[in-house]
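Dear support,

Our group has been running a series of protein-ligand predictions, and this particular one with iron/sulfur cluster is the one our PI (initials K.S.) wants archived with full inputs and outputs. We had some confusion internally about which version of the output was final, so please treat the block below as the authoritative record. The input we submitted was:
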Amino acid sequence: MAKLDAPQIVTSRVGLDDGHTLARYLATGGYESLRRALSMSPAAVAEEVDAASLLGRGGAGFPAGRKWSMLKKDPVTYLVVNGDESEPATFKDRLLMERDPHQLVEGVIISAWALQVTAAFIFVRGEFGLGLERVLTAVNDAYAHGALGLDIFGSGFSLDVVVHPGAGAYICGDETALLETLEGKRGFPRIKPPFYPAAIGLYGQPTVVNNVETLSNIPWIVLNGGRAFAALGKGRSTGTRLFALSGRVRRPGVYEIEMVHNTFRDLIFDPALGGGTTDDVAIKAVIPGGASSPWFGPDLLDVPLGQDEVAEHGSMLGSGSVIVIGANDCAVRAAWRLTRFFQRESCGQCTPCREGAGWLERILRRLETGGGRREDIDLLLDVCDNIAPGLGWPPQQTTICPLGPSIPSPITSAIALCKDEFFAHVEHGGCTDG
Amino acid sequence: MSHFLPGFRLRAEGIVALYPHARSATLPLCHLAQEQDGYLSANAMVEIAELTETTPAEVRGTASFFDLFHLEPVGTYVVGVCTNIACLLAGGLELLAHAERSLGVAVGETTAEGTFTLEECECLGDCDVAPCVQVNCRFVRTTTPDAFDSLIDQLRTGAIPEIPRFGLLSRVRRSVGLAVPTEVIATERARVAAEATSNDRAAG
Ligand SMILES: Cc1cc2nc3c(=O)[nH]c(=O)nc-3n(C[C@H](O)[C@H](O)[C@H](O)COP(=O)(O)O)c2cc1C
Ligand code: SF4
Ligand code: FES
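Confirmed final output from the archive:
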């Protein structure tokens, strides 16, 4: 049974037609949290966020409070918001930017106060025309309202926020690639060390990078207290989280539900959530956390939606996108398409990623379109093993960023769960599925 | 001679002023050039290099990395069909094939009269209304062949207010420049640090 009694922490306004306007935002308690934060010391605000044990919602799940405490002291520091959302089947940050941009902006200002940064940048994915317009409008209105700019609400605190448009490259979601792009360069992930932008980030200055959903939680946390947030969920996975549900479900969409107390089965089948699979088809596989995450078979539907719980079963909650693959869907085609995504989006700096993705894509394409051979299945695994030796999870890091070692996930998953389909493709000279 | 028309040049300078380093304005200025010209021309890149204190080669190197920048002219409407995982499961490849037939062009091509350019997209972040179609970075939510065709007919015969012509990424402009001088930030920080110390003293 799904547990649906948790408060709507970040989605309370997404159902309103005018939830994006300043007027509606103010009428529903907007910017009260900022006033509260400004009456507290920056350290006290940071303590609330730490007490909430809010895990980053961008994919890696790093605790926001800890990241903030790592920000190196320096006269010039920055806050950068990651709104590049491009992980396949992830569409929750777009919703927040289009439907409740002021909540994000308020979260940014509060965080800037807590971190005492000199300026903040909101990086919005280029393809989100409406999202860009809504966030820009919110920033303009926040200045006019006195919530941004000089002497915010008479507190003496001042802040500028710049909205920066992306231009269509998945890799810019990686925080170091995002910073490069923000500096006006190609989106090449940076070589590590330095490991953390909190030490060396934008223009070489200490920088905190947080995801849109992560920061959209901040106003609620400051108003209600970090402890109230931590009381929701379980273990390390506190609070609620947005799950973007897509694929073979009756009611695809974004659902905010409490962490851990709900399972994949709840999310997919509860009438208030996914409402079951399309035409009641059986489930072949579930992709639990974006394109990079290893798939779950139907036997793992009862795994709770929590960071550690999913990790224990060899995958990751990642960006919170859950994709349901039905019994009649072709696993080879799905693996091929995801591999093509990685091949198109690889930035090309590392050989295993650049070349490996290309080889894998070609092998999968020939399996799908009719030129496949029996040896191709072993060949696929062999190339995957070259990219991420041992094929374990989390994968071994052989490249500059995690994109490369994520490429094997859909392939090894599809082979593990649906090996017969691969052989059937060889025998029948390609896909018989339409 | 400036390649940016006077109004655009003014906006370009305003954009550069938003960043601590001029080079950061590269992407927004490339968008601005596309808004003016409908694509990113060589002349525009020369002027962007001047504005961002880089070289035209650096601007080209950055711009060519990104899917949204077109170094050759494209149609008034760039139509993107997503075929990534959620859309694939919902018939994205089939809708893309239909779009090719319907527009009479292959992926990457522009119709003869210059109205439409067709692209195959990676996930556009609208996976609950799959297969997803975007026109000039606006979601149009036409998931069936029939709906696709009537959208194209509509665009052929007249404009749809929600969809700007290609290049106009945001109709909203920033209404204020940077408001906070660095001295203010320095004073502000000193005050917060002093308050924190006195709080600590009071507490300790
Ligand atoms: C290839 C790649 C793509 C990523 N895409 C995104 C993204 O679209 N949005 C995002 O917030 N984080 C993305 N991340 C994670 C970021 O690097 C970073 O961890 C995150 O923005 C930090 O914010 P958080 O701690 O609030 O989650 C991506 C990482 C990698 C390696
Ligand atoms: S792993 Fe791939 S995407 Fe990441 S830096 Fe290397 S080549 Fe680029
Ligand atoms: S998979 Fe097509 S929009 Fe997300």
